[in-house]
Write a structure and sequence with these properties.
This protein is α+β, with helices and mostly antiparallel strands and 123 residues long. It has three helices and eight strands, in the order E-H-E-E-E-E-H-E-E-H-E. Strands 1, 2, 3, 4, 5, 6, 7 and 8 form an eight-stranded mixed β-sheet that branches.
């Protein structure tokens, strides 16, 4: 795992209408695979609940602490996890509201208006 810089992300994330499309269900899980899509462009983008600790911790303590610290400041922790862009948030699982908040914070990180982002969730 390594830190991801929003300035290294594709420019279209900040200039186009973007849809985050879940590739797996969001209920009761700490890791949701997904894609960010704008027209013919796409990038893999997963969601990770930083506090899941059983059967094993999803993040080491320094990364989990960073997820909480950035969240408190109205931001989201961007990391590369298993070779994919990943948005890490405090918590143990996802809800629709948490997914929307993550995408809103991603929009802020890339300099876009949150209303340019759409979420397509899987149950």
């Amino acid at each position: 795992m390594s830190a991801a810089d929003p300035f290294d992300l594709p420019d279209w994330l900040g200039t186009e209408e973007v849809t985050w499309q879940a590739e797996s269900g969001v209920r009761g899980t700490s890791h949701v695979a997904g894609l960010l899509i704008a027209g013919t462009d796409s990038i893999r983008c997963d969601l990770l609940a930083a506090d899941r600790a059983f059967p094993e911790a999803v993040l080491d303590e320094p990364w989990r602490r960073s997820a909480h610290q950035t969240w408190v400041h109205g931001q989201v922790l961007l990391v590369e996890y298993d070779g994919r862009l990943t948005l890490a948030a405090p918590g143990t699982e996802f809800s629709a509201d948490l997914v929307l908040e993550l995408l809103s914070r991603l929009a802020k990180a890339v300099g876009a208006r949150p209303d340019r982002f759409v979420a397509a969730l899987r149950l």
